[in-house]
Structure formats: structure tokens, C-alpha cells
Amino acid sequence: DGGITQSPKYLFRKEGQNVTLSCEQNLNHDAMYWYRQDPGQGLRLIYYSQIVNDFQKGDIAEGYSVSREKKESFPLTVTSAQKNPTAFYLCASRERERGGLPGELFFGEGSRLTVL
Amino acid sequence: DAKTTQPPSMDCAEGRAANLPCNHSTISGNEYVYWYRQIHSQGPQYIIHGLKNNETNEMASLIITEDRKSSTLILPHATLRDTAVYYCIARGLYGGATNKLIFGTGTLLAVQP
After folding, report:
1. Is the Cβ–Cβ distance between B90 and B33 less than 8 Å?
2. What HEC string does B60-73 produce?
3. Which of A88, B28, B63, B92 falls between 20 and 30 A from A75, CA-CA?
């Protein structure tokens, strides 16, 4: 079945280590997104990509990096520069806009990162 | 994009209709209202969207007031599995380079047995 797969579901890391979260989709969607969610809060946009080999910073990009070498994949690296990396990370994708109206977002199941 | 305001939490009895309000008093004419929900520790799920007419699908109904300053998401027969955080989002056409949806804190709907 088509969908978005995030891995790992749970991840523990020591301070000062970089970690990469995987996001793969087989929906043939052009646009992909990374959000961060902290307890009791809404989703905040980290990075997004509207097409292969292109990506843009979201609202809280500092301390994160991404790549979009393939349409299906949009990995997120949480670097040691991110001061508060412990959070729930969500990847999403959607089709290109049609007639100006954005299609629905499809989300993965999320990755919970804990820094020890 | 217009800012939306939702109550932080609501309760609903199982089997009854759940009516979730959303205020978007600054919405502009070309902005749609979207609803998503997020079950605990999962990714959000699209429910429905609309512009000015009422909309219904297999999951819910969306009622938008005539002046479009507020809307209500209706789950006609709430079940325990509908317990989730519900997000109301206003999003315009041609969102520009960002092409993104902005998620607030939503409403935590607790369906009681």
C-alpha cells in the first residue's frame, strides 16, 4: 500500500551526536515536509521540499539539515547544534497544488528522539 | 494565512455527536478551512476541507457560517477511537513559496464511554 514510512520509531542519542531520521514515501508526491512537535504543542515546520534537489527552511531550521536527492526520500539530520532536540518528529508529503489548492498532507507515524 | 482559534479541550459521550468549533474571524475570501486530527503519538490525518459550502464525507461534516468567520466540525456518532487532537487550519489558494499548512495547538476531544 502507498504511504509514508519513518524510521526509526524511537531513537536515543547522547548529547553532541548527530542523528539522521529517515522518511520514505511511495505516493509519488512532489512535496515533502518535516515537522517537530513538543508535548502539548502544535506542529512546527523545520524544512520542506517542493521538488527533488531543492529544499527550503521552515520556521525552526537551526540545528537541522536535510537532503532531497530522490523524490521518494527526505532524510532529516538533527545536528549537535540543535539545543533542544528531544521531540516527536513528523514527516509529511503531498501532491503538487492543483488550481492553487493544496492537496491533503499525508503523515508518517513519527520518530521520537530522546537525547540523554 | 488566517489565524484560527479553538477551545483547548472538549468532552463527548460515546455515540453522541461531537461538535468542534473553530473561529477564523480574519479569514479572507480565498482561504479554505481544513481539519486534521492526531491520535496520540501518531501522525495527523486529514479529515475534510471546505470554502463556504457545507461539506460531508465518510468521516465528518463541516459547517461553515455564512460570514465564514467560524466553522464547526461534526462527528455524527463519536466513538472512543475518535479521541484525538483536532486541528482547524485556514489556508489560502496559491500559498506561495511556502506551500505549507500551519498547525496550532488544536482541540483535544475526549470521547467518554
Report:
1. yes
2. CEEEECCCCCEEEE
3. B92
The pLDDT of residue A102 is 64
Provide the pLDDT confidence category of residue B97 given band limits of 50, 70 and 90.
very low
Q: What is the mean pLDDT of residues A92-111?
A: 80
Say if A43 is an interface residue toward chain B (CB within 8 Å). yes
Element (H, E) at B20: strand B18-23
Distances (CA, A) of A1 to A26, A42, B24: 9, 28, 36
Chain B residues with beta carbon closer than 8 angstroms to that of A50: 99
Which tens digits make up the pLDDT trace of A43-100?
Answer: 899 999 989 999 999 989 999 999 999 999 999 999 988 889 999 999 999 876 666 6
Under 8 Å CB-to-CB from B71, ≥6 apart: which residues?
Answer: B21, B22, B24, B33, B50, B62, B63, B64, B65, B88
Q: How far apart are CA A67 and CA A45, in angstroms?
A: 16
**Are residues A34 and A90 in contact, defined by beta-carbon separation less than 8 angstroms?**
yes
Q: Chain B residues with CB inside 8 Å of A48's CB?
A: 98-100
B94 chain-A contacts, CB cut-off 8 A: 97, 100
